[in-house]
């Protein structure tokens, strides 16, 4: 079945049936000081809590997977890397599939199917002892996320847009709450997994599966069969070819990919530099905790401040400049080769600036997608942004890693990524108003 949101989106977009005066500027002129959560619809609350639960279950298992594969199962290092890479590919690379299925069948069946597959994948992983079995389990886990993540993200964006047009406040406030929920889950999940790991990795996996059993049960009961704001079911036109010809959307994907490439240096450049400065990677956990706590505590105030002053393009541009500054801080300090606390301070500055940039970029990018998507294809476009950006990260991370092995000055990788982040601003579309269709290029 297809649930086509043409009627609702036509009503929501200036130039397609809605008053053109309803814009981000008008929304900012009316301050929304009340708590965003209290004004959300039950569906939006459910979807945001879903993101929290998803990440608790996921991050209760993922941080401990590599160690389990290397020690308990005895996999070689290259095979562990392959397994982790396959998990990322089966998830991020297939987001576009989940988004397209959401457009075709609606949110409820895609989310429920994703939950069932994630439960099966975690249970399978807990009992997998051979390489082929582990690979099968992680592919299933990744594909499950490729189903429900774009379904949830696209529906949050759609409902946030409807709420904004109804005078309920900026959509970026809702998407900021969504980001906070995800970071809170990423923060809580590893603690849950660490406690359960004292028993057994299998217990960790079964606990992760248990979280998704609860999510599945809640959605069977609470997720409406007909999503508010969606019109009658009918076949939607357009698809991947139209998406690839949408230059403004592809430029947004390019800029978002540059942001994700920068963010992924938390897992590549940062650990290498922490090891050099501290002699171990023990401080890395504290830097990750610093990043998560910043998002949980500061995301909403930052979003409220920027919503009153910046549009979507300016928010993303400011965020990329902050990210570039974070890389520049380490690049400037690196020639001194400080160690100990002095060596960690520039890295803490990098994490803070990168996280502040993330707070500006991520909600704005998600909020921009509905303006650029074709009617009835928001799920496809939401998934495609993750998939295209994931390919950029895959290629960019390989390049960043090669910079570590070329004999260049130690500051070179940091300077290159600072330049990439700053240059990505030029990719951002120059107009963010709703109603500017992708065909008007």
UniProtKB/TrEMBL annotation:
Keyword Cell membrane belongs to the record: yes
Topological type in the membrane: Multi-pass membrane protein
GO molecular function, one term: transmembrane transporter activity
Domain Major facilitator superfamily (MFS) profile as annotated: residue spans: 39-436
GO CC, alphabetical: plasma membrane
Leader sequence segment: none
Keywords associated with the record: Cell membrane, Membrane, Transmembrane, Transmembrane helix, Transport
Cross-referenced SUPFAM superfamilies: MFS general substrate transporter
InterPro entries (UniProt xref): MFS, MFS_dom, MFS_trans_sf, MFS_Transporters
Localization: Cell membrane
Protein name as it appears in the record: MFS transporter
Organism for this UniProt entry: Streptomyces himalayensis subsp. aureolus
